[in-house]
Design a protein that fits this description.
The protein is built from two helices and two strands. It is mainly alpha-helical. The protein has one domain.
Amino acid sequence: MTCAPPSAERALQAIAGSNVTASLDYEQRVRSFHTDLRNYYYPRLFRDAPFSPASLAERPGFGGTGLRGTGE
């Protein structure tokens, strides 16, 4: 037998995209974005890689549901 309030809560969380699975997916997207940021900025900050206004178009962006520039 299931208890109605917790079942309803889980159902609403799933609809809202705020359940545990969605939260873990979001955290993974944040980790991936952070890696993309490091890969973009570290060479420019610590290895004297060229940095120009044109290179700004290559920088990663995070939209919450996917990453700009990675095809997601």
